[in-house]
TrEMBL record:
Protein name, UniProt field: AAA family ATPase
PANTHER family in alphabetical order: TESTICULAR SOLUBLE ADENYLYL CYCLASE, TRANSCRIPTIONAL ACTIVATOR DOMAIN
Keywords on record: ATP-binding, Nucleotide-binding
Species: Dactylosporangium vinaceum
PROSITE patterns named in the record: HTH_LUXR_2
Amino acid sequence: MTSEALAGRTVECRLLDEFTGTVRSGLSAALVLVGEAGIGKTRLLDHAAASAADLQVARVSGVEPERGLAFAALHRLLRPFLERVEKLPEPQRAALAGAFGLTSGAVADLFLIGLAALTLLAGAADERPLVCLVDDAHWLDRESLAALAFVARRLHADRLGLLFSVRGDEAGPAAALAGLPTLTVTGLPAEAAHDLLARSAPGRVAPAVAERIIADTRGNPLALVELSAGLSAEQLAAGAPLPDRLPLGRRLEEHFLGRARLLPAATQSLLLLAAAAPPDDAALLWRAAGRLGLPPAAADPAVAAGVLTAAPTLAFRHPLIRSAVYSGAPAADRRRAHAAVAAAIDRDADPDRRAWHRAEATAGLDEDVAGELERVSARAGARGGNATLALFLARAAELSPDPQERARRLLVAAEAHLVAGDPAAAERCHALALPGLRTPVARATAHRLGAALAWFGGGVATVTSASMLAVAADADLPADLRDGLLFEAIAAAVLAGRHTAGTTLPELGRAALPEPGRTAAVSTVRALVDAFATRIAVGYAPAVPLLHAAVAALRAEREVSHGTVPFVMTGQWIADDLWDDEGFRAVLEHADELARRQGALHAVYAQLAGRATTAIWSGEFDRAAACFAEADDLGPAIGVPAGDTSRQVELLAWRGLEAQARAAADVAITEWDAHLGYAILGDHARHCLAILDLGRGRYAEALAKLTPGFRGDVIAHGNRALPNLVEAAVRAGDRDLARAALDRLAERATASGTPWALGMLARSRALLAADADAEALFREAAEHLTGTTIVTELVRTYLLHGEWLRRQKRRAEARAQLQIAYDSFAEMGAAAFAERARIELQATGRRARARTAVPDLDLTPQEARVAALAAEGATNAEIATRLFVTASTVEYHLMKIFRKLGITSRRQLGRALRER
């Protein structure tokens, strides 16, 4: 159904009718209306509500004084559906109850709260399609806006629509909603503007006056209406001059304020009280009014003047009037209004709002109010409201008489701002805190936070590992704080590599070495520090037991990260350094389960890259692509732009997609490495391009890319590059470099002792061995690798063995090895290596067998992920939780998957996928 279009808004109304029509049809939609104040966004939301008259409609408006109260807006939007909370999965139910202050317990990740909101709204939409209208989103509290933006990005087939309105000059909200479909609302077309002006004016409007008004207001409907009502008949008819400055933007607020100030004093006081109080709690407003001696009749002049509306409840006619009344009031009057609101709030029922209004009512310093703010800030933080925690603590710091208390509160506020995604505010609080810090613990905490700010602000190369090391040397620091500083310093230096300033990895390693003879149990952080420090400063072989212990600790760790470093990232480095494919997968699976249960999207994002890597190793390139697609889908929710393929270089290289691989590597090398200081990403990209070169038989080019990493001894993938370096050096004729790489590989692979490590060692020895010894080494390599999940390296072993046999003129035996290599590479889609195997096979006198074409089933990455999980036996609800979507979206994808695969049930999925 459609509603009557607003004058001059035919296109916008048509799009909104299509929006509601999409929801009505069973799918979902999200849209952001962007425009200046007064441009008509609220009227367009009204049109959408009318267009959705046969659907459920839920509506919430942002309110400026409520911006500091975490999840206040989300609670107001979800209130009609809260009876459904008991139907949510337990982690989501607990997260939402915690966010709304209904329970206490573990801190819920913001995105788990968003997933709970999505599930709740989608459940309501199952009964009847639902449209949610979010007006003045720029005035929503940060947590509510982030949760609703998360919901909007996860919609697909849920009969649910989210429609936002936001001012275009508000950078923060615009960033939170970035990537969602956007409709920019501009001024009315000339004809519609003339019609509106003619209807609104009390008398005839001269053409020249109309042109001036429309030009100066840029067709802003609210400005046109207000201006026409405020001008005299003589001015409109060109009989008297117009004001030099017509009301627009800030002047429009001043215009509303001028109208309010013409009202009686009691009415003005009531208006200010209404501007400061929550918009949907009439009882609270009238209790506060009673404390100021304001009778209900005080509202009548404002209603008569069109400043307030009386039905269904007392409300401002336009949000700009509320803003004008509040911001234009004298500070003393605002404090008086906030004091009345605070006094009218039940301390036990709503302690957060009461404390905030008390703070806003306070001038000067007041430890009692500051202490109350800090107490409720802890409650907000426990609910996942980091922006509220930061805001409350920063305000508490302003009210603190004691300089050290002020500094301490500012420091905690800075950390909360950083977690909430506002590094600029964190920088300000951090800088204000520094002069008041007196204790070693406070200074160390501040230094660690400064490093995190540097990490977020200028890239990992700006993290001051050297000064973190100096601070960690203070003997008075608690062990956990010292260990945390050392861990983050080492992690930053591993990422930055040659870009590390003021110190070196060996210096960091020596400073962080474990105490001799220590036998007591240690934390995961300390286990990681011990492993890295020993590996860096003492040597690989002595570090191996500690590296294995660190992997074991990570497999049992209950936290997803330490400071700015996700544990899954360091776990991947260590397992990779050990050639421990089983440990690598176990760390990832544990991190995946933990992060998804907690809704920790940053950790989910980090482990998806690792899962893609394991899929590449096992030759499952489609699964790797699905992991990257899922990461790309989640990226915008955590501030990572979609479309960055720099982490996909290894997959692109194995697939032989040279142009794409080089383009992705260029981003990693020029942007992430050279610009942001992540040398580890640049080194990895070069290693991946070397794999591409080896597949193409370009051994000298591969050698040139691998040699710098060998000399720098890059942790993690540096060990994995050693067999590639041996192969490239042997084929390029640099046997001295090949022997040097083999020596390092022999020392480390023997110490590690994993089948993967021993298989790579045997294969590399075979490349340098005498003919009499090579064959046994190739067979030994294949035997070791058969016991691993590293299928790509096993197949490369067949290829190298076959090439060696052909050079020994043992063509029949060579054909057997090369045929296996060709078939396997072709099946997994390793185009370059398949071509290399085909050429070698042809040289033995056999043409490569034609392969039966596999139909392109055209599953999207999301469909492939849903299909794989369903084939493993996961229910729709379980798949929805893992992929941060709804069960309805999973069902929608499964119907499409069944149709594409030509099957009719989940029982057929596994076989159908294997036969693709």
